[in-house]
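User: I've been trying to design a sequence by hand for this structure and keep getting stuck. Would you show me what you'd pick, starting by listing the structure so we're on the same page?

Assistant: Good idea, let's start from the same input. This is the structure you sent:
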């Protein structure tokens, strides 16, 4: 479990802020006709300028600087020359950056070009669910409250949460405890304490919450080819509540 003790606060914040800066530039770069590999190369260039390392590069065999997931790809999409963005697509960009011993993790979904109301609604509700979950972060409360409010909001609009993947502790480690589930019950799981640092990253599917893994052993797709959207922030628990580190 990652706590603030013995932590260089500025070093902890740096990769998260860099991710936010890069994501802002990526948002302006995304357009119909752009290949996902071009987005990844753009991210790699920006990472060098920010003096940070893309944590996904060479991570357990992953060979790109980001995960780029389009439409029915739930997460861990591999950037490629063959995947081209089209009007109406939903594209998720997932960045994890590393600097001076610390990680920062940020994910955001975008509607590409002239989008449908269906796609816009899914992306909007997914982002709302993220912030509703983050607002449940209070010292002395339990992590189950985060997932409960996220699930409640998603189901209000007839979307389903992908329960197989969760948020995680982050800081001097890429993935650690506590696990942040995006579904569940009130007043369950670990008690939130000052100094915890973790991600909240709900994935909402248009229909079923079930997924499957492709042969590349990375790409996750919806079981029914329905649309998916995800948002993520790295959050530090503070005495006054919380600080979103991946937000400008």
């Amino acid at each position: 479990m990652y706590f603030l003790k013995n932590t260089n606060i500025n070093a902890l914040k740096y990769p998260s802020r860099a991710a936010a800066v890069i994501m802002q530039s990526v948002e302006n770069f995304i357009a119909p006709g752009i290949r996902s590999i071009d987005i990844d190369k753009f991210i790699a260039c920006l990472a060098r300028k920010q003096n940070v390392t893309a944590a996904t590069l060479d991570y357990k065999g992953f060979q790109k600087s980001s995960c780029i997931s389009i439409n029915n790809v739930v997460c861990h999409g591999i950037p490629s020359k063959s995947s081209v963005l089209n009007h109406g697509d939903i594209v998720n960009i997932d960045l994890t950056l590393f600097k001076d011993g610390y990680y920062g993790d940020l994910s955001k979904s975008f509607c590409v070009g002239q989008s449908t109301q269906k796609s816009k609604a899914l992306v909007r509700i997914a982002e709302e669910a993220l912030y509703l979950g983050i607002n449940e972060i209070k010292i002395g409360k339990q992590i189950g409250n985060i997932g409960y409010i996220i699930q409640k909001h998603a189901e209000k609009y007839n979307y389903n949460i992908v329960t197989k993947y969760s948020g995680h502790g982050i800081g001097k480690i890429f993935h650690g405890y506590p696990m942040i589930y995006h579904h569940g019950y009130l007043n369950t799981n670990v008690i939130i304490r000052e100094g915890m640092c973790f991600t909240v990253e709900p994935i909402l599917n248009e229909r079923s919450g079930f997924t499957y893994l492709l042969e590349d052993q990375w790409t996750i797709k919806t079981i029914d080819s329905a649309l998916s959207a995800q948002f993520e922030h790295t959050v530090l628990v503070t005495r006054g509540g919380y600080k979103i580190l991946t937000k400008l």
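That's my pick for every position. To get oriented when you compare it with your attempt: The chain has one domain: 9-240. The domain at 9-240 is CATH 3.90.230.10 (Creatine Amidinohydrolase).
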